[in-house]
Write a structure and sequence with these properties.
alpha/beta; nine-stranded mixed β-sheet; six-stranded mixed β-sheet; 15 helices; binds ligand BES; binds manganese (II) ion; binds zinc ion
């Protein structure tokens, strides 16, 4: 992974593989480094603009060789869009595209001149640039044919004073932690299911805890049965892989509230006896994306040391159709004591979340946030663009939507009219585990809500966003690490009060 640092100096005076310069769509004046560069290149840069080759459109990248006229070998002009519309996400997308180009052409050492703008503070600007650089350089590669390393080794952000360097430095630090956590979550999600079993996921959590000094408890199948987590246990029965219940605890301030983070940890979802199709199973190694977000967020939180407490809970199991598998018609006793009639074994996520949320409640966590690749219905409703938010507290849902905006993880609030709960009425138990196809994402949320009670709670259905089918700005095909940054930022904001 490249390292992002800040340096004070003149970007044009040092030999590097490339210097990155931002270009606005609506600003033809070109002052500062852009003007100096153009002058050194005898006005050839301006020509590119006149000819329409450089428009400054968001995401545009143009590589220009300096051909010996300047110490840096290349100038990489990256479009920032309209200066009046610049925000952290625009910076991330613009820099993300530029960094992908650097990695394609084999650039190792580069400098970036931060664009002049009053729409972002210097720390926020540096943070967005750093996040984009690290997220865009990510690759999951276990192919023997390539070494899987990005070429970029160092990106230096050019500062003009000690003061601006130190302000940017704060942003670089935070951006590095945010992006590294996101990339860690992506690694967990991209890992093949025969490697990332519930046991292996628990070992990953344990490793984080040991590295960062978090309390960590890994509970096994015996404990799960003995304490009465009947829903988690039922889902695990069809698999030869034993389940785990993973608890991570961060204590940042005695007496402060404890935020509960819960993540769905199905390391492979075959659907169980209600077996999925081959196509339907393809991305189901990523059915632990919520768990990955929780574990990665705890890793970041432990580094950032906010003055608040956080409890991370991950129920982890496979959902398989083995001979002992739970069946449609089974009635499960959950950790809360409530009973569930199983209609469909493929609606397993809500079952394991029910037990985990009851546990978080018992430990006094409030509010509780959960992330889960819960329903295909959320994908149908929202497409691949945003996460769905559901909850029992409109204020909290609004807060989460705002946090999502802040970190560039778009979230949309979904309706939770009480009448949806009717669809889960069971003749044989307190509740049934599916409410039919119409409104499937909402009834799934209501199912979880049944176990939440009065505790303020938000459920993030990340089925639409946990996976990217193609390269998109700072993401490549595969896991996105979604919810990691929302979780971290929510905790940071709450700690600041
Ligand atoms: N893990 C799936 C949901 C999912 C599907 C996530 C595609 C990401 C991509 C979940 O366990 C599931 O199978 N849900 C069912 C629920 C249904 C049986 C009520 C679904 O959405 O079809
Ligand atoms: Mn399922
Ligand atoms: Zn699932």
């Amino acid at each position: 992974m490249p390292q992002v640092t800040t340096v004070i100096g003149d970007a044009l005076a040092t030999e590097r593989d490339a210097v990155l310069l931002g270009v606005f769509e609506d600003d033809g004046r070109w002052t500062g480094t852009l003007a100096k560069t153009d002058k050194a290149l005898n006005g050839q840069l301006r020509k590119l603009r006149e000819w329409g080759e450089v428009k400054g459109k968001l995401g545009e990248v143009t590589v220009v060789h300096s051909l010996g006229l300047l110490p840096p070998r290349r100038l990489v002009l990256f479009g920032l869009g309209k200066s009046s519309e610049l925000d952290a996400e625009a910076v991330r997308r613009a820099v993300g595209n530029a960094v992908k180009t650097l990695n394609q052409i084999g650039v190792r050492h580069a400098a970036l001149v931060p664009p002049e703008t009053n729409r972002l503070t210097l720390p926020d600007l540096a943070r967005a640039i750093t996040e984009a650089t690290l997220l865009a350089s990510y690759r999951y590669s276990k192919k023997s044919s390539d070494d899987g390393k990005p070429s970029l080794e160092r990106l230096e952000l050019i500062a003009t004073s000690r003061r601006s360097a130190s302000e940017m430095g704060t942003g670089v630090q935070l951006g590095t932690v945010m992006a590294e956590a996101t990339n860690f979550a992506r690694d967990l999600v991209n890992a093949p299911p025969m490697e990332l079993t519930p046991t292996a996921l628990a070992e990953q959590a344990k490793a984080v805890a040991e590295k960062r000094g978090l309390d960590c408890e890994i509970y096994d199948e015996r404990w799960i049965e003995e304490v009465g987590m009947g829903a988690l246990r039922a889902v695990s029965l069809g698999s030869d892989q034993p389940p785990r219940f993973i608890v991570l605890r961060y204590e940042g301030k005695a007496g402060a509230p404890t935020i509960g983070l819960v993540g769905k940890g199905i390391t492979f979802d075959s659907g169980g006896l209600c077996l999925k199709t081959a196509e339907g199973m393809l991305e189901m190694k990523g059915d632990m994306a919520g768990a990955a977000a929780v574990i990665a967020a705890m890793d970041a939180i432990a580094q950032l040391q906010p003055a608040i407490n956080v409890l991370g809970c991950v129920p982890a199991t496979e959902n398989m159709p083995g001979g002992r598998a739970f069946k449609p018609g089974d009635i499960l006793r959950t950790y809360s004591g409530k009973t569930v009639e199983v209609i469909n074994t493929d609606a397993e996520g809500r079952l394991i979340l029910a037990d985990a949320i009851s546990y978080a409640k018992e430990k006094g966590a409030s509010p509780i946030l959960d992330a889960a690749t819960l329903t295909g219905a959320a994908i149908i409703a929202l497409g691949p663009i945003c996460t769905g938010a559901f909850g029992n507290d409109e204020q909290l849902v609004r807060e989460i939507v705002e946090v999502g905006k802040q970190v560039g993880e778009p979230i949309w609030a979904m309706p939770m009219f009480a009448d949806y709960r009717e669809l889960l009425k069971s003749d044989f138990a307190d509740i049934k585990n599916t409410g039919g196809r119409p409104g499937g994402a909402i009834t799934a949320a209501w199912f979880i809500g049944e176990f939440v009670g009065e505790t303020p709670w938000v459920h993030l259905d990340i089925a639409p966003t946990f996976w990217s089918d193609k390269d998109r700005h700072y993401f490549s095909k595969g896991a996105t690490g979604v919810a990691t940054r929302t979780f971290i930022q929510f905790v940071l904001n709450r700690a600041k009060g």
